[in-house]
Design a protein that fits this description.
Blueprint (H helix, E strand, L loop, with lengths): L4 E10 L8 E9 L3 E5 L6 H9 L6 E6 L2 E2 L10 E4 L11 H11 L4 H14 L15 H13 L5 E5 L7 H18 L2 E6 L2 H7 L2 E6 L2 E6 L1 H6 L4 H6 L4 E9 L2 E4 L2 E4 L10 E6 L5 E3 L6 E10 L4 E6 L5 E6 L8 E5 L6 E4 L4 H18 L1
Parallel strand pairs: 3-8, 3-9, 6-7, 7-8
Antiparallel strand pairs: 1-2, 1-4, 4-5, 9-10, 11-12, 11-14, 12-13, 14-20, 15-19, 16-17, 16-19, 17-18
Helix pairs in contact: 2-3, 2-4, 3-4
The structure holds adenosine-5'-triphosphate (ATP).
Length: 369
């Protein structure tokens, strides 16, 4: 375990009754002082991971370590971990100050220290001077900040945030994203943030775990995940992509659309079936003669910063283009892209599907030989 590791999951499985496991054999490490995001569709197991870190649920199998200590059975109140919930879970009959002071009063801290710590926590979330307000007098965004102040006042080592922004409107949500990110950097606390919003994850995180059906499909920095998705599930979930089937010819050479193209990816076997990803913003509109692909423009939407243009090639494959240039509906155009724009993925939506397909592929290979 690295020096920086604060939390470690080792082959953790969580199963309720005889249902299929909601988490299956999950292993990962969380480093101190970073902003992590668990990203994935509803029901993939994000909250289950948070609940196990907080101590509200126990793993069925496997081990969870906090600061190198096995904590599978350590009660929630003995962990240096605090949670901010989606519904804030504030006490409506207490004012802002008392909501934030609650944990400190339970710890029987003296009055002067409580005053100092609560004032500091409120100023961290830009709510200085709001202590005497009732919760009912606070807006959604302000309540969210009270909930965060209540969590950080306990000086946890890890702060868990379960979709804390999902009840806010878009403008407030963006504002809170800045506040949270900035606060995490100032406090240096490890944040583990749960969301199903990929833009939020990309904007805020040092590291993202992309989850699907009780597994982590891929972990990495926002750039890694966006630029180098490992499979179709991740590519589809993070941003918009053109995903087409193809074949590896050799290192740095792929075939798709019946033609060969240079790329910068290698390391896969010649002839291996692959899928290639090209992001819509990496496709450039040009003349048919100059384009690497020839397509017909089908629809076009103005999105403010760019046009979102849907085109089809002769084989009926759709190509989505984000372009600052406008195209003419129904016209034939060329699409240009650089070798760096081609990202090669192993074929199949998920790792499991990939393994099944590879087995089938190897069987066919043996027959051919
Ligand atoms: N106490 C429980 N008993 C039985 N099944 C449960 C229990 N808690 C969670 N589950 C199931 O575990 C799965 C994962 O739930 P979890 O809340 O971790 O998902 P999630 O990714 O956080 O989803 P969401 O984004 O909708 O909150 C779901 O299918 C859920 O129904």
């Amino acid at each position: 375990m690295g020096e920086q590791t604060i939390i470690r999951f080792e082959r953790v499985t969580k199963q309720y009754d005889n249902d299929p496991p909601v988490l299956a054999n999950v292993s990962f490490e969380i480093e101190r002082g970073k902003f992590y995001t668990l990203l994935g569709p509803s029901g993939c197991g994000k909250t289950t991971i948070l609940r196990m870190i907080a101590g509200f649920a126990e793993p069925t199998e496997g081990s969870i370590y906090l600061n190198d200590k096995l904590i599978n059975r350590v009660p929630a109140n003995e962990r240096q971990v605090n949670t901010v919930f989606q519904d804030y879970a504030l006490f409506p009959h207490l004012n802002v100050f008392e909501n934030v002071a609650f944990g400190l009063r339970i710890k029987k801290m003296n009055k002067k220290d409580i005053q100092e710590k609560v004032t500091q926590a409120l100023s961290f979330v830009n709510l200085e001077g709001y202590g005497e307000r009732e919760i009912s007098e606070m807006s959604g965004g302000q309540r969210q900040r009270v909930a965060i102040a209540r969590a950080i006042v306990n000086e946890p080592e890890v702060l868990l945030l379960d979709e804390p922004l999902s009840a806010l409107d878009l403008k407030l949500r963006t504002e809170m994203q800045y506040i949270l990110r900035e606060m995490q950097q100032r406090l240096g606390i490890t944040f583990i943030f749960v969301t199903h919003d990929q833009e939020e994850a990309l904007a805020m995180s040092d590291e993202i775990f992309v989850m699907n059906k009780g597994k982590i499909e891929q972990s990495g920095t926002p750039n890694d995940i966006y630029d180098e998705p490992i499979n179709r599930f991740v590519a589809d979930f993070i941003g918009e992509s053109n995903i087409v089937p193809g074949r590896m010819i050799a290192d740095y050479q792929v075939e798709f659309n019946g033609r060969q193209f240079e790329c910068v990816d290698g390391g896969l076997r010649p002839n291996e079936p692959i899928e290639i990803v090209i992001r819509p913003e990496d496709l450039e509109i040009t003349s048919v003669a100059e384009g690497k692909l020839r397509v017909k423009v089908d629809t076009q939407l103005f999105r403010g910063v760019h046009y979102e243009i849907s085109c089809y090639d002769d084989s009926g494959q759709e190509w989505l283009v984000h372009s600052t240039k406008k195209a003419e509906l129904g016209s034939e155009i060329g699409l240009h892209f650089d070798p760096e724009a081609i990202h090669v993925m192993r074929f199949g939506e998920t790792e499991e599907e990939f393994d099944r397909r590879l087995e089938a592929y190897e069987e066919v290979e043996q027959h051919v030989r």
